[in-house]
Design a protein that fits this description.
about 30% helix; single chain; alpha+beta; globular
Length: about 290
């Protein structure tokens, strides 16, 4: 049986999450306190108990000045005791029916492994988003007077993202609530989000002697100033930047497939695929 979740299922869903994703109990509690919405979670029941789950987070996407209703599908998981029964496939099919009925134009997901791109490709999805991973080490940028770094607020993050990605032909426009969660999660995991010189920001996760920058939004001409300031902050041996492919990216970088789309609305699909502008953009997926 497939049903929408209710609050009484939360302990069982947490158990599925821990069993499948391996996150700490503290992180799972954090996620469920701040992000769990029963009306966005489909559950497969076995003998009346949750055996598998799938989350559908609503988010607008923008193309050609229009906004379309989209769902980001994530946390698709089946408890190990019930794997091999096709429950995840059944949940995906139920999710598509639910989203079409609710008037969604598309759904999006980010495969966790390379092989899953083929798996989801056979289920109606196509790769729509790429990301560029740029590796920088001290000496690979020109030292400049460092830009000022201050803690990033949700309001500034929302404003700067919308300004920066206005030229994208297809932009996933996370709202203030989701971005607030991302900033809280970043701090919980030992990172920080910093506004840079009033013109951009970086969402930074120190990992040993390297720093992962999962979103860097700033005018490209200010990259040297930004990296000078960030290196003074962290003094890391290596910086891994996840960037919009629409940027003129130099140096040692890799272009990787990142997220996929399944369209339900053919008109919206035609608008998005025919739109002019820079590469489509998504960030802050649950990875």
């Amino acid at each position: 049986m497939i049903t929408l979740a209710d609050s009484s299922m939360e302990p069982a869903l947490k158990s599925i999450w821990v069993a499948c994703f391996g996150d700490s109990p503290d992180y799972v509690d954090f996620y469920f306190q701040r992000m769990f919405r029963p009306e966005e979670v489909l559950v497969a029941l076995e003998e009346g108990e949750p055996a598998a789950m799938l989350t559908m987070r609503s988010v607008p996407v923008r193309a050609e000045g229009k906004s379309y209703k989209a769902a980001y599908i994530f946390a698709v998981a089946t408890h190990p005791d019930h794997q091999g029964k096709g429950l995840s496939t059944t949940l995906m099919e139920a999710a598509h029916s639910h989203l079409i009925q609710k008037g969604f134009a598309l759904s999006m997901l980010a495969p966790a492994t390379d092989s899953l791109f083929d798996f989801y490709g056979k289920r109606g999805y196509s790769t729509a988003f790429e990301t560029t991973v740029l590796t920088l080490r001290p000496g690979s940028w020109q030292e400049q007077p460092g830009a000022a770094l201050v803690p990033l607020s949700v309001g500034r993050m929302l404003e700067l993202r919308r300004r920066h990605f206005a030229s994208s032909r297809f932009f996933v426009d996370w709202g203030a609530e989701y971005l607030a969660y991302i900033l809280e999660e970043c701090r919980m995991l030992g990172g920080e989000a910093l506004e840079i010189g009033g013109e951009g920001f970086a969402v930074c996760y120190p990992v040993g002697e390297r720093v992962e920058i999962k979103e860097l939004v700033l005018p490209w001409r200010t990259l040297d100033q930004a990296m000078t300031a960030l290196h003074r902050q962290y003094g890391a041996r290596e910086y891994s930047l996840r960037l919009w492919p629409g940027e003129p990216i130099p140096g040692e970088n890799r272009l990787l497939p990142y997220a996929m789309v399944r369209w339900y609305d053919e008109t919206a699909k035609s608008v998005a695929q025919g739109a002019w502008g820079k590469a489509p953009y998504i960030a802050h997926i649950m990875d």
